User: What shape does this take?
Amino acid sequence: MDIQELFNTAFTSFPMNVKFTPHDTAPALLYVSASAFSTAANQRIGITVSLDGTPLGNLMIFANEAQSHKALVTQLFPVQFSDLNPHTLTLSAATPYTKCDSNDTIGAALLMISDTEPFIWTTQGPIPDYTTFQSKVSGEALLFFSGSAFNTGGGPIGLNVVVAGNPVAISQIQASNGSHVAVPPRFTRVLLPYSKDPIQIGFSMNSGDIQSDVNDNYQIALIY
Amino acid sequence: MPQSYLSIQLSIVDPDGKDAGGTSAVLFSNEAHQHKTLVALLINQKPWSFGKTYKWSLAVSGQNTVTDANDFFSVTILY
Assistant: This one.
């Protein structure tokens, strides 16, 4: 998999435009990670990602605290370029409460993938929540997942990805309080079973203390 | 300390001890003594040489960054 780092840089101002020239016209996934803060407590904040003026989606988090920088839930966006000319990625505030300053970092990279269309599921809480996919391989695939949750009393948060009833990967964070927190996004190898029938896939928590609601965002991608 | 830039640095060196790549994960933390999710940054990795053993190390690189047994780390190479 060829990876093209587009930028990893300090935030400037909204809208933040970054020009780049893709190295390939292969199908790709645009990886975007960032942090931001809220001007008021208990608000959703996020960054809208647009490519050449077309919105691709948002990186979001629920900010329980005002004026506290938070990692947003990292996302992958499917893209494909028909030329190798310069293109523009635009980052804008997704909500009126979203702020970024020079202490925030934004990163983007293109992951060139095969012609086999990846399975991508982008959803909101609460979890546990499941969907189905039709596996395109019997064997290895690359799993990406991201999300957020909270632990009312603070404490460990473990977000599991479950395939066909079996946990296959976990991302963990030690929450210091009861606030929503993004778990670290992860890429990891998974072995997919052969099945003619759709396979269940989704998210669960590793403890009953962990909670999730409609303010939490999630994404799973299976890259073949 | 509050109002600190947190940073974890991944360093990769080849068998000769020369720089062979690396990246970082960062976040500005307004609060002290709180575990935080850092922003993971993907980078263009320098080419690997087949058969060589590379040494990977994670270290705190922000002045006030502290980790303990409650922190989790994950590193993945995407081929």
Q: What stands out?
A: Chain A has a mean pLDDT of 96. Chain A has no helices and 19 strands.
